Structures are given as structure tokens and as C-alpha cells.
Amino acid sequence: MMESDDKDVENDESLSRIKAEIATLNAKLNHFDLQRRQALNDLLDLKGNIRVFCRIRPILNNEYGHFGSVVSSDSTHVLLKFTESKRKYYALDRVFTPAASQDEVFSEIEPLIQSLLDGYNACIFAYGQTSTGKTFTMEGTSEWPGIVPRTLEELFKKAQTSQHKFLLEFSMLEIYMGILSDLLSPRNRKTTIRKIQSLSIRAGPDGGIEIENLRAIRVNDFHQVKQLYKLGSRRRSTASTNANTQSSRSHCLIRISLTCRDAPQRQRERNKLWMIDLGGSERLLKTQASGRRLEEGKAINLSLSSLGDVISALQSKKPHIPYRNSKLTQVLKDSLGADSKTLMVVHVSPKDEDLCETVCTLGFATRARSIHLAQEESMELRLKKEYAIVELLKIVKQLEDECQEIRSDIENLYENLKYLTNVDSKSFNIPEAPQYDAGDKKPHVKNVKATPVLNQPRFMSSTACSRQKTSSLSPSAIKKKVQDPPVKRKSSSVYADSLSSPVKGISQSGYGSECSMSKTSCSNWIYNEECQSEFSEDSSECDVKMVVFAEQKKLPSTPYLSDKGFNRFKDGRTEKTERKKGLNFNNCPCPRKKEQTAAQIQRTKKGVTNAVPERMNVNKKGHIEMSVPIKLHAFDSFNYNAVDENDLNNDFALNRVDPLSEQEINQISIEMGSLLVDETQSSGNIFLIEDSSGRQDSPI
Ligand SMILES: Nc1ncnc2c1ncn2[C@@H]1O[C@H](COP(=O)(O)OP(=O)(O)OP(=O)(O)O)[C@@H](O)[C@H]1O
Question: Which of 247, 551, 596, 678 is least buried, going by the fewest C-beta atoms within 10 A?
């Protein structure tokens, strides 16, 4: 008897000891997690809250013509070769060559995911001329999944291993000719765009933006979200155009809302990520679009122009941000600017004949990065910034490892509890975590040699002493040090690469001839001889005229570049070509806007806003959707717009998607011409259709 009592006491003591240890570790975890969060945010701030990448599309198998005028001169510059002597460099945050894999592109997106879990809003855009690979980058293929599926998968992985509970909701909508429609709403096969309810936008009680009646479907795992994404993608409006047989005719917006109630240290309780495959910018004259395609093109161009206006106004910290100019910018109002992170991947074509559109796209990209800031930044400051980024990356990695180690220690202790008591250890009441006193146990950032990102002269590299000094700084101190250089002071979100001479040298390039284009990008940028562009807030449709600049200075040649392009013929032969004296710029747009009368502006605006679309999901033949064999899954509830308070704190990780039984599936007629949610049969359930036809176009 005595022996058993002794054992009980011993057991109790062990239990209390383990519980106390768990509490201490929890406190330690919170402490390090907070530091990691701070370091990551500093890192992203330093990189810039609005980052712009460029992806050059590879030459496709069936493509022929002249190539070679668009090259990436290094990892942050694109070079356009207009003629032998006329070239222009564009600086971006990162340039992806035609050979870049989806993995490489995603590696730039990944840090953002942790930031999302930390409560920051984020937007990822794919921008570019039609057929340059926006959908490929965002959606990808089953073999090469793009940013959206990868981000969703990673987000779930991270949310599941986090010590906090997250509620994730998925929404998908498109903006087609100014009409907002829910891509996940229940529809029957005969639903046309006329019948689709156009969603309205309003300001929420907390000042955020709310889209009325947009479904926010709770998702518990990647499989669920994958089904929804597939459904929404199929419903998107696409059509065959001269430029692309499967051209997206709308902006497709995916929204993931994250809610976390048990992490007061998060930036906000509810935040969101937008992933947006923008409609392709087009030169309407070149595509020779007419009728509906023309109207679609105009609507896309108009809203892209408004997006450019907003990003530019945010970058230059204007007091007025013109969000109201388009539905697209209205929807994104609370997710652009402030502490939100924005990533824009602009896409360009490798073809010489698309060079004019490429100029426009890169003009848009440069504006989004805010060129005036780039010009102000000195080489010294840039080097400091690069160095600080390397240091912060190390700190973030170290803190992440630290947190991971603590998490596994906690898991082990819970296992011990379970062993001692034979009860599910998570149901134990662990005391409130005491404040963790870091003392001198703060994660020590080793004195790491700076890896110069640029080839800097030796005299500019840091000394052992200065490295020692910098490494011992806290993340915020590192950021501050870079932010507050002795000469100039600027805010963290506006760091942009400064460029040495080539940019200015080339800026006086002379390429000209009169031309006309849609206003999407070029018309809003008026280049002067310094290549400083002024921005026009007028987003109306207009023609533009080419300006002839003074003869440019000869550029120093770079080892990366070849003056030869090449032709690819229909029969597959290729031939190297000397660069011609000048490319044919007939009908080429140039970045100067032609004066427009008020009446003209009014007329064009009217033309766009009055257009009423007749159908949605139009396929090549003009039909809605297509017929495919399907499998059905049921979701437990469809209308998740209002989230139940109690649900938030309960089992987030439950798998709530139950496949329907064979019998149920048989009961449902699946001989339909579209992927639809049949309202008559659903009785509150959503039926998701999985394509079992082996089609290769689904992303995941
Ligand atoms: N990086 C790439 N690697 C391989 N193929 C690519 C790549 N980028 C684009 N493509 C291919 O180019 C074609 C056009 O791409 P996509 O449809 O993604 O263009 P888009 O910019 O979305 O066009 P739109 O604006 O008209 O919808 C597709 O066949 C796509 O598979």
C-alpha cells in the first residue's frame, strides 16, 4: 500500500514537473516566435513592400519569327535591344529568364506565406501582354503547378504546424467587363452572365472592404481548396483570340482569408491574401479585335491602367489614392498599401514583334517600382541594404530553427505525459506561460562573412570589425541602420535598386515613328529626355504618339550580351541574324500620350461602362462550359459568409469533406454540360465536381 502511495506521489510530481516545463517552453516559443516575426517583417520591409519581378516567356514549340531583342542581362535587369546601338535596361527586383522553373519563381513568393500567418495582408499579381504566361505562372499545369497551388499547399502546411489555430476561407471571383461575379456560386447549366448576380462592394464596419454575397468557403486542407480552385478556374471567362487560343478575358481573383483568435501578437486578427491573374493587356489595333473581344480588351486595359495609377500613387505617397477608378482597385483597396505586401510578376514575350508591348509592360513595372526612388539610392546604400538582407535572412532562419526545436521538445513532453497517464495529453491543463526571460540566452547571430551580392570593389567590402558590429545588431537595428543612412533618410518600404550609368545613358534613346495603341500602359507614361516619367491619372482610352528623342550615347558593351538575334521558321529551322539597323516600328506605340479632348474621354469611358456582357464562360465555339465525366464531393455547408464564433475555437483541423457514396453519386444526374453546383439537389451542400477525364489542363 505504502509503495503504491509513494508511486502516486512520484507520478504527481513528474506530471507537475512536465507541465511546468511545457509552460516554460511555450513562453520561450512565444518569445522567439515574436522575434522571428519581427525579423521577417523587417526583411520584407527592406526588400520593399511592393516588389516587381519580370518573367520572360520561353519560345513556344509552334512559335516562329524573329527573337533575341529581349534578354535578361543579369538577375535584376532586362535589356531591350531596339537596334545595334539603341538599347534600354530596366531594373527590377528579380528577372526570371525563359529557362526559369516554377520552383524558382515560387522561391521568391515563399517568404510571404509566413508573413501571412503573422497577420499581414498580401497581394500577388500576374501582369502582362496577352499570351505571355500569366496563367502559366499563377495556375501552371498538373506537371508544373504555379504560384496559386503551391502557395495554398504551403500555407496549409505552415498553418497546420503552427502552434495557433487558423480558420482559412477560400473565395474566387472574376471581374469581367466591370462585373464582379462569384466563381463559386451555385449555378445551373443554363446560367449566363446575365443571370449571374453582380456583386457589390461596400466598406465594412472595421473600415475594410466587403464584397456582398461573395462566398467564403471554409477550407480545412489542401485537397478541399484544390477542388474549389479547379471549379473556379473552369468557370473563368476565356476565349480564343488572335494572340492566344485560351485567352483569359477577365481578371481572376483568389482570396484566402485567415482568422486567428489565439495569437494577439499577430498584426491583425483577420487578414487576407489575394492572388490575381490579371487579364492580358492588349494593343487593340494589333490584335484587330472587334465586337465583344474589343469591349473585353478595353475593359481590361482600363482597369489595368487604374491599377497602375493606384500603385504609383502609393509608391510616391500621394495624399489621394485613386482607388475608385475601377472595380479591381476598389476590391483591393484594403489590401494594397499600408503594411500590405505586394508582389507583381510582369510577363514579357521573347518575340521581337512584341517589343512595343514589352516596352509598355516594363514601363508599367518600372513605375510600380517607382523609378525616382531607384535613382536616388546610392551604390553605398544599396550595398548596405544587400548586406542587411543577408544578415536578416540568417537571423530569420536561426529563429525558425530555434522555434522548431522548441516545438519538438514540447511534443516530446506531451508524449511523456501521455505515457504517464494514459490519457490524451493535449487535454491536460497547462498553466499559463510565465513571461520568458531571455537574459543572455537571446539567439546569437554568428559573425557571418558578408556575401557580397554585387561584385563590389575590395575597398567597399566590410571589414571584420564592421561585420562584427553589424552581426551583433538586432533585426530592427539592422533595418534601422540601413534605413537611416548618414546622408539620406528614407522609409523602409521604398527601397529600390539604384542603378549605375547604363540607365541614364540609354534613357536618351531615340526610337520613334508615329503609332497608335490602347492606353493600358504606354499612354500613362510620358517620358521626357531624362527618362523620368510623369504620371497621368487620366485612365481613359486614348491614342499615343511616338516621340523622337535626342540621339543616345553609345553604351559600353556588356559581356552578357550578343548582338545577334535569331529567326525561327515554320519548318523548324533557325538562323542567326545580325541585328538590323532598326526594328520596324510602324504601328508601334511610344510612351507619349496624345492630347485628348474631354468629349473623347467621355465617349470612351461610356463605351466601356455601357457594355453589357451576354454570356460567361464562353469556350472557343461560343458555348458555355464543356461536358466531362465527373465525381462529386459534398461540403458540409456552403454559405460560410458568416463565420460561427464557436467554430473558430473548435476543431479547425477536422477533415470536413466527405466524398459522396456511390449511391448518392448515381442519384445525381451528372450528364451536364458544365461544372455546376445544382441548386435543386444541394439542399445546403455544395457539390464539387472533379474532372476524371484525364484532362491535362487542371493545375493540381
Ligand atoms: N514559362 C513557360 N514555360 C512553358 N510554357 C509557357 C510558359 N509561359 C507560358 N507558356 C505557354 O504559353 C501559352 C500562353 O500562356 P498563358 O495562357 O499562361 O498566357 P496568358 O498571359 O495567361 O494569356 P492571356 O492573357 O491571353 O490569358 C500557354 O500555352 C502556356 O503553356
Answer: 551
Name which of 499, 502, 479, 501 is nearest 491 in CA terms. Answer: 479
Q: Alpha carbon of 97 to those of 79, 103, 165, 349: distances in Å?
A: 12, 13, 39, 11
Mutate to test the pocket of ligand 1, among 54, 57, 347 (most ligand atoms within 8 A of CB): 57
d(CA 110, CA 125): 15
Q: Residue 569's pLDDT is what?
A: 64
Rounded Cα distance, 229 and 545, in Å: 42
Extract the C-alpha cell encoding 424: 490524451
pLDDT (0 to 100) of residue 16:
82
Query: Tell me: the pLDDT tens digits for 78-104?
Result: 999 888 788 888 988 899 999 999 999
State how far the alpha carbon of 337 is from the alpha carbons of 48, 49, 123, 675, in Å. 12, 8, 10, 37
| Cβ atoms of 362 and 593 closer than 8 Å | no
The whole-number pLDDT of residue 148 equals 95
How far lies 362's CA from each of 220, 308, 374, in Å?
Answer: 39, 12, 15
Strand partners, 577: 565
Specify binding-site residues for ATP.
128-135
Distances (CA, A) of 449 to 358, 446, 475: 39, 9, 17
In this prediction, residue 50 carries a pLDDT of: 83
133 close to ligand 1 (CB < 6 Angstrom): yes
Residue 131 CB–ligand 1 contact under 6 Å: yes
Q: Whose CA is nearest to atom 3 of ligand 1?
A: 58
**3-class DSSP state of 535:** strand
Residue with cell 518575340: 351
For a mutational test of ligand 1's pocket, the pick from 125, 131, 137, 142, i.e. the residue with the most ligand atoms closer than 8 A to its C-beta, is 131
> What distance in angstroms lies between residue 346's CA and the mean position of ligand 1's atoms?
13
Ranges in the chain, pLDDT < 50: 194, 371-376, 440-473, 484-563, 579-700
Residue 516 Cβ < 6 Å to ligand 1: no
Q: What pLDDT is stored for residue 420 in this prediction?
A: 77
Residue ID of nearest Cα to ligand 1 atom 8: 133
Q: Is 236 in the pocket of ligand 1 (CB under 6 A)?
A: no
| Grid cell locating 56 | 520572360
- Which atom of ligand 1 has the smallest separation from the CA of 347? 21
- Record the pTM: 0.60
- Dihedral sign, Cα of residue 232, residue 237, residue 240, residue 243: negative
Query: 688 and 228 in contact (C-beta within 8 Å)?
Result: yes
Q: pLDDT digit string (tens) for 470-513?
A: 444 455 555 555 554 444 333 333 222 222 222 223 333 322 22
The answer, yes or no, to whether ipTM is higher than 0.90 is yes
**Is 58's C-beta closer than 6 angstroms to any atom of ligand 1?**
yes
Q: Which of 59, 135, 620 to probe ligand 1 with, by most ligand atoms within 8 A of CB? A: 135
Q: Is the CB of 128 under 6 A from ligand 1?
A: yes
Predicted local distance difference test score (pLDDT) of residue 255: 95
CA-CA distance, 198 to 609, in Å (whole number)? 14
582 lines ligand 1 (CB under 6 A): no
Q: Hey, whose CA ends up nearest to atom 6 of ligand 1?
A: 133
Residue 89: strand pairing partners? 79
Q: What is the per-residue pLDDT for 242?
A: 55
Residue 241 CA: which ligand 1 atom is closest?
Answer: 26
pLDDT at site 2? 58
